[in-house]
């Protein structure tokens, strides 16, 4: 991922994801209170905020997956594991695991001085 794209994402500052009470989660029609909004403008604004927040959360989680995969495959680790083992643990194909390991290494290289 290119650095400018990452900075652009960080500037969006999507709405925070709030955990819903268990009784609300039990109701299949309930979704972050969107079903109770009657004003279409307000509904669109809040749904857009949530959509951006979920996308940002997904992107961030994928970055953490990649970093973890790179760390697990690091040849300097005595307990390193193979891309096939990483793929098995994460539910990926081995080819995807290799790509995630590369991506994770690039993220780690960006952080190191």
Order of helices and strands: HHHHH
Termini, distance in Å?
Answer: 19 Å
SS-based class: mainly alpha
Helix content: 55-70%
- Note the total helix count: 5
Average pLDDT, all residues: 82
* Rg: 19 Å
Strand content: under 5%
* Mass-distribution shape: elongated
Low-confidence stretches: 6-11
Number of distinct beta strands: 0
Major sheet size, sense and barrel closure: none
Furnish the topology, listing elements before pairings.
Elements: H1 3-12, H2 22-26, H3 40-73, H4 83-90, H5 94-111
Helix pairs in contact: 3-5, 4-5
Structural overview:
The protein has helices spanning 3-12, 22-26, 40-73, 83-90, 94-111. Helix 3 (40-73) packs across helix 5 (94-111) and helix 4 (83-90) crosses helix 5. With 113 residues, the chain is mostly helical. The relative contact order is 0.11. It contains 5 helices and no strands.
